[in-house]
Design goal:
The complex is a heterodimer of chains A (about 375) and B (about 290). In chain A, about 35% of the residues lie in helices and about 15% in strands. With about 375 residues, chain A is of the alpha/beta class. Chain A has a domain at about 5-110 and about 215-220: Thiolase/Chalcone synthase (Peroxisomal Thiolase, Chain A, domain 1). In chain A, the strands form two sheets. Chain A has a nine-stranded mixed β-sheet. A two-stranded antiparallel ribbon of chain A has the order 5-6. In chain A, helix 7 crosses helix 11. By secondary structure, chain B is α+β, with helices and mostly antiparallel strands. Chain B is about 15% helix and about 40% strand. Chain B is built from five helices and 15 strands. Chain B has a five-stranded antiparallel β-sheet with strand order 1-5-6-7-3, sandwiched between helices. In chain B, helix 1 (about 1-15) runs antiparallel to helix 4 (about 70-80). The longest helix of chain B has 13 residues, at about 1-15. The chains are: A alpha/beta (about 375), B alpha+beta (about 290). The interface of A and B includes residues 122, 134, 199 and 202 of A. Strand 5 (about 200) of chain A pairs antiparallel with strand 11 of chain B.
């Protein structure tokens, strides 16, 4: 790869932004361009999620981007996050565009809440709608419930407990507590808090579930060559990959031999290690998608940080907390900072690479970022340029 | 609100209302009907003694009751109706019996307003608790008393009852839903290579054939995993409920609501079907 992230921008993260998703998108894009030292007229590409409600042309209009030579969208919910950067990097590499901005804007708390049952998803006249017909009518219709099904089997096979899931939440909230941009700034939790929180979809408790947030994040990608002349230290895209696995469904891949892994993340991981010429032991900071805690444990296993079923032991001594062997989500993740569909995690990875994060891991030379789990997904490895 | 308080004071000050006389004296045919309905076989009730718990029966006002303007419960309800507290639910009924009644006694009843408390926030909505007290007499002798309390409330605006979700059916999956309607759990079978598959699709992933048939499952399997759903509400479901992913001996898994009491991985279950919005959905119950 010869592309780099040169700008990051975001709105505040809240529960009620008080403005349209389009305005949030436009604000984040402008902020990212300002961070990069670029202007709207430099932009010729835009990438977002298939789920984003703001058309590329609408964002271009608001921001004042005169023309676009590349626009693209990635499907599968939060699985799109890192793939937006991959799309941008590929566009830059092929010459389809020179400066591409990836964005995601959502009023996910004050507007359409993903945590509720989506009748639209269940009734879509598409192959995905037919897929959902095997689960939604039977009552399995929320993201938490779909994860709970896999989590229950994982507990059964490996002896993991609710407290093991809770340690992920405790780590995220500890990190968020010292991040002024996090919704849960100044509000850490204990494992007892986690264990006392109410059931959402057993075995998942309230504190196993990420927040619902309003906000937007934008990421500017350009060639490494151009990056060297811009305002910030470039975050080089050392690896970028997408992945889907065998017998893949969206959140309900229940018909595979094994329910306790995330093979689509394995597909991503193997590509990342190969592209970057490195392995899990070379990672200094990991930003792991954390919409629900059990999938953080499964990611650690699927990406090779530990053996299958051993994540509960891997994290037991605080390995994923700041100061641990593998600091995970120093910004607080989506449980602690905000749920911006994984895009805020990419921004954190960039800050870690720049050395400007609020919870900076010293000498972060290789930062891994993953996107949504339980869905076709994506990942990145960033490094200082 | 001030009118509610004023009327409360006024009606309380009126004290006991005029007496209402029973339509009929205590009589054996009515006792016979009552003990039959209650399943009470005490021999004394076949020989001229009335069950004490029947006391309210004797002064019931019938199907087309004449208005009784000084009845305190009626009067207070009218005041609350006017103030928008239009719904009613009985919350307490405490009866005290001084003695059993005998066939031939003619009862009267008198009531008074004891208390009106509110406005209170309840799960049903904001409302007022109205308490009345009644005494039954046989001649001059009090034979029973009752404390009766209702909640008159303003029904909370209900979210439009969400329709239950039904499956999207395609040409590839129609056979499955036709099967459930006929009481069959059909598993797709590739006509070329014999591979079984669920959920079904148009092309066999093993051999590429597009000619699909099915086998009818015995519907007996074991729980592979499950979820107890507590939150948020799901259209058409009462919380909490259990959804189970069940492994069948045919080598496929089928997901459905688990209708039994206790669920665990490995538990033997059998398939049943629940009717939802014109569909018959597979569901699971504990195998005997």
């Amino acid at each position: 790869m010869s592309a780099a992230i040169v700008g990051i921008g975001a709105t505040e993260f809240s529960k009620d932004s008080g403005r349209s998703e389009l305005q949030l998108a436009a604000e984040a894009v402008r902020a990212a361009l300002a961070d990069a030292g670029l202007s709207p007229s430099d932009v010729d590409g835009l990438v977002t999620f298939a789920m984003d409600a703001n058309a590329e042309i609408a964002v271009a209009r608001e921001v004042g981007i005169p023309s676009l030579t590349f626009f693209s969208r990635i499907a599968y919910g939060g699985g799109a996050a890192c793939a937006t950067v991959q799309q941008a990097a590929m566009a830059v590499a092929t010459g389809a565009a020179e400066v591409v901005v990836c964005y995601r804007a959502l009023n996910e708390r004050s507007g359409h809440r993903f945590g509720q049952v989506s009748v639209a998803a269940a009734t879509a006249p598409t192959s995905s709608g037919v897929d959902n017909g095997w689960h939604y009518p039977m009552g399995l219709g929320t993201p938490a419930a779909t994860v709970a099904m896999a989590a229950r089997r994982y507990m059964h096979e490996f002896g993991a407990t609710s407290a093991d899931f809770g340690r992920v939440a405790v780590a995220d909230r500890r990190h968020a507590a010292t991040n002024p941009n996090a919704w849960f700034y100044g509000r850490p939790i204990t494992l007892d808090d986690h264990q006392a929180s109410r059931w959402i979809a057993e075995p998942l408790r309230l504190l196993d579930c990420c927040q619902e947030s309003d906000g937007a994040v934008a990421i500017v990608v350009t060639s490494l060559e151009r990056a060297r002349d811009l305002a910030q230290r470039p975050a080089v895209v050392r690896a970028a990959a997408q992945g889907s696995g065998p017998d893949q469904y969206v959140m309900t891949s229940y018909y595979r031999d094994d329910l306790t892994g995330l093979p689509e993340m394995g597909v991503v991981g193997r590509q990342l290690w190969r592209q970057a010429g490195m392995g899990p032991s070379d990672v200094d900071v990991a930003v792991l998608y954390d919409h629900f805690t059990p999938y953080v444990l499964m990611q650690l296993e699927e990406l090779g940080f530990c053996e299958r079923g051993a994540a509960k032991d891997f994290i037991a001594d605080g390995a994923i907390e700041l100061g641990g062997r593998l600091p995970v989500n120093p910004h607080g993740g989506q449980l602690g900072e905000a749920y911006i569909h994984g895009m805020n995690g990419i921004a954190e990875a960039v800050r870690q690479v720049r050395g400007t994060a609020v919870n900076q891991v010293a000498g972060a030379a290789h930062v891994l970022v993953t996107a949504g789990t339980g869905v076709p997904t994506s990942g990145l490895i960033l490094a200082p340029g | 609100m001030s009118r509610i308080l004023e009327e409360t004071d006024r009606l309380k000050a009126l004290g006991w209302c005029g007496e209402r006389v029973a339509r009929d004296p205590v009589n054996q045919p009515m006792i016979n009907n009552w003990v039959e309905a209650m399943g009470d076989t005490h021999p004394a009730y076949r020989e001229g003694l009335a069950p004490p718990a029947m006391v309210q029966v004797w002064t019931m006002r019938g199907l087309h009751p004449a208005p009784q303007p000084d009845d305190p419960l009626h009067a207070m309800s009218a005041v609350l109706d006017e103030a928008g507290f239009t719904s009613v639910v009985a919350t307490n009924c405490e009866q005290t019996y001084h003695r059993a009644l005998k066939v031939g006694e003619l009862l009267t009843v008198r009531s008074r307003l004891s208390d009106v408390v509110g406005p209170k926030k309840t799960s049903l909505g904001v409302g007022w608790f109205v308490t009345t007290e009644s005494t039954w007499f046989s001649g001059e002798e009090p034979v029973a008393t009752m404390l009766f309390r209702i909640l008159k409330y303003q029904p909370r605006p209900q979210a439009a009852a969400a329709s239950p979700i039904t499956p999207v059916v395609s040409r590839d999956t129609a056979f499955f839903w036709e099967g459930t309607a006929a009481g069959q759990l059909r598993i797709q079978r590739c006509e070329a290579c014999g591979r079984l598959r669920h959920p079904p699709g148009p092309m066999c992933p093993a051999c590429g054939a597009t000619s699909m048939g099915f086998v009818v499952s015995e519907g007996a399997g074991t729980v592979y995993s499950y979820v107890v759903h507590h939150h948020p509400p799901v259209p058409g479901k009462r919380l909490p409920f259990v959804v189970a992913l069940v492994e069948l001996p045919e080598g496929v898994r089928v997901l459905g609501e688990f209708l039994g009491e206790s669920v665990e991985i490995g538990r033997p279950v059998r398939c049943t079907f629940v009717r939802v919005g014109g569909f018959h959905l597979p569901a699971w119950e504990a195998a005997a």
